[in-house]
């Protein structure tokens, strides 16, 4: 098996300091959390940004500030800025980080329920996102919250509407209202992707570490972080993203999987 690529989703758009005081809002806090994750073994940071008061934003200049600050401390880390932003944002608003030409960015693969909200990713929106990534030579990480999202994105790739092989998928399982986090569902999704693709699994909330273990033994990669889960174990808040990454590293070591450095991750992902 290839070495394990760990992604840390350090911030997200929805979680707050009221839920866990270590959730980062300011540039300094975002750098602190990125460093803690990378020092613990993450090769990738999935990045959302906030205003200092915690409001989620897709503002290009705020992304530039955070990316520059992270890169000044950890130059080799792979950054995957979000184009998902927060529920309710327009496509143009969400696309701003692509104007900075990151090596990767997320591309969300369909509309879905998101708790009490609807996360809009209509076909016309997705075509705009795909075109932008093709034009700006950005490798998408295809975020699939639903089994049907996979069929959608594979059809778009066949039509040349989004970048094609080698594709990187992130199966985000356990969002309330979307595909549940079970090994059976993950296995089905992994079996649909084209040969030569890479994949990551993200389990939401209490599913974070069971899904991490599944990803490790199934030969995939793993995402953890405050965006997805705030607890290091039942009822115990994590003090940093690094604590969540460390737990994945421990699981991987027990299960015999080595951890990829950012340079090794770049090779595995074909960057
Ligand atoms: N904040 C979620 C509504 C992404 O980063 O591309 C969407 C999200 C996906 O986080
Ligand atoms: Zn995200």
What is the secondary structure topology, with strand pairs?
Blueprint: E1 6-9, H1 27-40, E2 44-47, E3 49-50, E4 56-57, H2 60-73, E5 78-81, H3 91-94, E6 104-108, E7 112-114, E8 117-119, H4 123-135, E9 139-144, H5 147-158, E10 168-173, H6 183-192, E11 198-203, H7 208-218, E12 221-224, E13 231-233, E14 236-237, H8 241-254, H9 262-269
Parallel strand pairs: 1-2, 1-12, 2-5, 6-9, 9-10, 10-11, 11-12
Antiparallel strand pairs: 3-4, 7-8, 13-14
Bound molecules: (5S)-5-amino-3-OXO-hexanoic acid and zinc ion.
(5S)-5-amino-3-OXO-hexanoic acid is lined by residues 13-14, 82-84, 86-87, 106, 108, 114, 119, 143.
Q: What does the overall shape look like?
A: globular
**Rg for CA atoms:** 17 Å
**Proportion of helical residues:** 25-40%
Which fold name fills CATH's third level, the topology?
TIM Barrel
The N- to C-terminal Cα distance equals 19 Å
Bound molecules: (5S)-5-amino-3-OXO-hexanoic acid, zinc ion
The largest sheet is: 8 strands, parallel
- Helical/strand content category: alpha/beta
Percent of residues in beta strands? 15-25%
Query: Number of DSSP helices?
Result: 9
Mean of all residue-level pLDDT scores: 98
CATH architecture: Alpha-Beta Barrel
Q: Name the CATH homologous superfamily.
A: Aldolase class I
Order of helices and strands: EHEEEHEHEEEHEHEHEHEEEHH
CATH class: Alpha Beta
Unreliable spans are none
Which strand order spans the largest sheet, edge to edge or round the barrel? 5-2-1-12-11-10-9-6
Count of distinct strands: 14
């Amino acid at each position: 098996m290839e070495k394990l690529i760990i992604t840390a989703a350090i911030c997200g758009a929805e979680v707050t300091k009221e839920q866990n005081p270590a959730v980062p809002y300011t540039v300094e806090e975002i750098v602190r959390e990125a460093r803690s994750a990378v020092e613990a073994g993450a090769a990738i940071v999935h990045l959302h940004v906030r205003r200092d008061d915690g409001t989620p934003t897709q503002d290009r200049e705020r992304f530039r500030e955070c990316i520059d600050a992270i890169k000044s401390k950890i130059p080799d880390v792979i950054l995957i800025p979000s184009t998902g932003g927060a529920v309710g944002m327009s496509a143009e608003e969400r696309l701003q980080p692509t104007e900075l030409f990151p090596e990767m960015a997320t591309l969300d693969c369909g509309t879905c329920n998101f708790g009490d909200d609807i996360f809009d990713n209509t076909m016309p929106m997705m075509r705009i996102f795909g075109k932008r990534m093709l034009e700006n030579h950005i490798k998408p990480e295809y975020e699939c919250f639903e089994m049907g999202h996979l069929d959608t994105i594979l059809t778009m790739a066949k039509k040349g509407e989004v970048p094609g092989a080698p594709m990187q998928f992130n199966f985000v399982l356990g969002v309330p209202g979307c595909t549940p986090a079970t090994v059976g569902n993950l296995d089905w999704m992994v079996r649909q992707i084209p040969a030569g693709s890479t994949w990551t699994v993200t389990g939401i909330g209490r599913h974070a570490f069971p899904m991490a273990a599944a990803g490790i033994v199934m030969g995939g990669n793993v995402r953890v972080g405050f965006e997805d889960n705030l607890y290091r174990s039942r009822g115990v808040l994590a003090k940093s993203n690094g604590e969540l990454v460390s737990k994945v590293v421990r699981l991987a070591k027990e299960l015999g999987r080595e951890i990829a450095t950012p340079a090794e991750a770049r090779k595995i992902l074909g960057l």
